[in-house]
Request: fold
Amino acid sequence: MLNYVCFFLAALFEIAGCYGFWMWLRQGKSAWWMVPAMLSLALFALLLTKVEAAYAGRAYAAYGGIYIITSIAWLAAVEKVRPLATDWVGVGLCVIGATIILLGPRFTSA
Reply:
């Protein structure tokens, strides 16, 4: 359960940090947007290291599914854009893939 909390918070901080760059470079906002953006990205990185996983790559792959869900929620909540049905289908496929990666059987070569 704690992993999912860390994944969700990490996703929020990553999206918020990248959004700061988006606002500065794409929307012409002040470069001061970089101060909270960089802090947010640092918190993202710290939170992702708190996830209990044997391998970083597998933790990041599982995180990807949570990140995608959070991104679509951000689209709706912050950018006030209604997600399309295809957005939700894509979310579902990504979450299934992330779950398979995280929980699938582990095979080792002899």
